[in-house]
Design goal:
Helix 2 runs antiparallel to helix 3. This protein has one domain. It is elongated. The chain contains three helices and no strands. The protein has about 100 residues and is an all-alpha fold.
Amino acid sequence: MGLRPGGESAKEELGDRTPPTALASWWVGRLTFVGLLMVIPGLLGFWLDSQIGSVAVFGVVGFAGGSVLAIRYLIKLTADQSSGRPKRPSGVAANNREK
């Protein structure tokens, strides 16, 4: 199903015995990360605006940049999902037994 941080899909690692709650919590974590990726740069930009006295320039740029980063992450995540084969970085074992 979804790619795990090590590059393995949850189904690939656990086989058919993957609990639905484990997959759901994995997706919740990915989507929470996407939300934070959109919001945090904007908040940092607004903080920087308040420190230097500008009028929401860095805040808007932060939200725009964060949104671009989040969309790129979502595209990569869905591309990895639709390919059927998760893309692992070189040197990462397919499962823990191969390490």
